[in-house]
Design goal:
alpha/beta; TIM Barrel; 8-stranded mixed β-sheet; 5 helices; binds iron/sulfur cluster
C-alpha cells in the first residue's frame, strides 16, 4: 500500500485534533473528486513499518483524539490487507483513541469487512457534486453518512433524537447521552 500524506494535527476529518492518513488507490472515481491523483495505487510513498511506528508515536499525546483514514479509499481490498493489522495494533496499543474511516463505498456493501471491527466511525458513500454542501461537518456531500459502528447509530439520527429528548426533558436527554456515549 502507498500513501499520499499524513497530517499530524488535522481538525477537518473528525472531532478533536487527529492524525490523518491518506492512503493511495481508489476505484470509485467520483466525478468532482478533489484529489484524483490519489486514485492511482502507486501514488505517494510506500507504507512501511517505520511509517506505522511514526503514526503510533504521533497518536500518543493525550491531546490527540484519534486516527482518521482517508484516501484514495481505505476499503479497497489491497488497502484493507495492510490497514487491518495496523488498526489492530492501534487498538491494542492505544485503545483510548477513536478511529474514523472515510470510504466511497456504501456501508451496506462493505459491512462484513473484518477491518470494520477496528473502526469506530465510518463516513460512507461517494462524493456527489450535486449533493455538495460546504456547511456539513466532516463530509463533503449530503448523501454521505456518519455511521457510529460502536452503537449501530447513524450519528445524525442520534443528534436528532438527542435534540428531541432534550426539548421534552433535559434530564431525559442527559440519561440518553449516558446510554449512548
Ligand atoms: S471515494 Fe474519495 S478519493 Fe475516491 S473518487 Fe470518491 S471522493 Fe475521490
Amino acid at each position: 500500500m502507498n500513501y499520499g500524506a499524513i497530517k499530524k494535527t488535522d481538525i477537518a476529518n473528525g472531532p478533536g485534533v487527529r492524525v490523518s492518513l491518506f492512503v493511495s488507490g481508489c476505484r470509485n472515481h467520483c466525478p468532482g473528486c478533489f484529489q484524483p491523483e490519489t486514485w492511482d495505487f502507486k501514488y505517494g510513498e510506500p507504507f512501511a513499518s517505520k511509517t506505522e511506528d511514526m503514526i503510533i508515536e504521533d497518536l500518543r499525546p493525550a491531546w490527540i483524539q484519534g486516527l482518521s483514514l482517508l484516501g484514495g479509499d481505505p476499503l479497497e481490498p489491497e488497502n484493507q490487507e495492510v490497514l487491518l493489522p495496523f488498526l489492530k495494533r492501534v487498538k491494542e496499543e492505544l485503545p483510548e483513541k477513536d478511529v474514523w474511516l472515510y470510504t466511497g463505498y456504501i456501508y451496506e456493501h462493505v459491512k462484513d469487512a473484518p477491518i470494520l471491527r477496528f473502526v469506530d466511525i465510518l463516513v460512507d458513500g461517494p462524493f456527489i457534486g450535486a449533493e455538495k454542501d460546504v456547511s456539513l461537518a466532516f463530509r463533503g456531500s449530503r448523501n454521505q453518512r456518519i455511521i457510529d459502528l460502536r452503537n449501530g447509530w447513524l450519528v445524525e439520527e442520534y443528534m436528532k433524537e438527542r435534540a428531541d429528548r432534550f426539548m421534552k426533558d433535559p434530564r431525559e436527554g442527559e440519561s440518553f447521552d449516558q446510554k449512548i456515549l
